[in-house]
Design a protein that fits this description.
- The structure is a single chain.
- By secondary structure, this protein is of the alpha/beta class.
- The chain contains 11 helices and 13 strands.
- The protein has a domain of 224 residues: Rossmann fold (3-Layer(aba) Sandwich), CATH 3.40.50.
- Helix 1 crosses helix 7 and helix 4 packs parallel to helix 5.
């Protein structure tokens, strides 16, 4: 690995903490975590703290001065941007969900432009595409977000791409599809997989919103973070947006059926509810660019990933559900 010091925005969150673990395993000498702990948890970093040199700041990257000061003090070579307000939060506070992505991207672009650090890897989202018009969805698919969260991701991506084009900055963008795995938020604003596991563990009925035929490309978090670490040394990825997914289309009905099977819960007891606001109909990633540039191939099957995820939540039920 070419670089040794990193700043991870959102590093105490679900994906961010797995990235921290991955960088430690790859030999990072210093990892600085900046997180406002809106969803981040100190528990997510316990393994990394035992193995690596981890420095933690409880701060909000939307504040330029705070971000500037931390970068000047710690002098990271690379910044990973995973800081975000989650998609369901945009139903409650759409402005904040949108502006969080945009303001942090502006701050990072300005700091990179003035030479405060060397390289930026920014996490986008498949929500930038909206509902699939063509499948599988390539990086040149039309951008038609259906939520303020997705719109904020689009705006941040376009801003960072424009800075790359105008100022020749070292920016790469990873666009993951529907990540899941251990440590995923199980409380407020949780996604379909942890939410379903939580309901079954609590003796509640799993829920399918809409007809359950809407699809996603569920991707194990370990595969995503490995791809983003590979991007560090890939010159061809600079200035590009690269999809990372499983490369498989799975309906919501199928994923809930798979969770029910894994947890020995009768699928016939699933409850149907109306369509969720802003829900997309179809997602299915074309990962050929990731394969070509990053030699990316997902190594964790959906069955294996769900098994690991269910086992983790069973073991951590008490401390994660309160």
């Amino acid at each position: 690995m070419k670089y040794s010091s990193f700043l991870i925005l959102g590093g105490a969150g679900f994906v961010g903490s797995h990235l921290v673990d991955c960088l430690v395993e790859h030999g990072a000498e210093k990892i600085v975590v900046l997180d406002n702990f809106f969803l981040g948890r100190m528990e997510n970093l316990q393994d990394a703290l035992k193995k690596g040199h981890i420095i933690i700041y409880r701060e909000d990257a939307r504040y330029y001065t705070a971000l500037d000061n931390i970068i000047r003090i710690e002098q990271p070579e690379v910044v990973y941007d995973l800081a975000v307000k989650p998609l369901p939060y945009s139903f409650i506070d759409p402005e904040s969900a949108y502006m969080t992505s945009v303001e942090i991207a502006v701050n990072l672009a300005q700091l990179l432009k003035k030479g405060a650090y060397q390289k930026l890897i920014h996490y986008s989202s498949s929500e930038a595409y909206g509902t699939a018009e063509k499948v599988p969805m390539r990086e040149d698919h039309v951008l038609n977000p259906t939520s303020p969260y997705g719109a904020g991701k689009v705006a941040a991506d376009l801003l960072l791409t424009s800075y790359y084009q105008m100022f020749d900055l070292d920016v790469s963008i990873i666009r993951p599809f529907n990540q899941y795995g251990p440590r995923q938020n199980i409380g407020a604003y949780s996604a379909i997989i942890p939410m379903t596991i939580r309901r079954i563990l609590r003796g509640e009925r799993p829920v399918i919103e809409w007809d359950g035929e809407q699809s996603r490309d569920f991707t194990y978090v370990g595969d995503t973070v490995e791809a983003s670490v590979t991007m560090l040394d890939c010159k061809q990825a600079v200035g590009k947006i690269i999809n990372v997914g499983q490369g498989e289309e799975t309906s919501i009905k199928q994923i809930i059926q798979a969770i029910c099977d894994e947890m020995d819960y009768p699928f016939k007891n699933v409850e149907y509810k109306p369509k969720r606001q802003g829900d997309v109909r179809r997602h299915f990633a074309d990962i050929s660019m990731a394969w070509a540039l990053l030699n990316y191939k997902p190594t964790t099957s959906l069955k294996e990933g769900l098994k690991k995820t269910v086992e983790w939540f069973k073991e951590n039920l008490r401390k994660n559900m309160g």
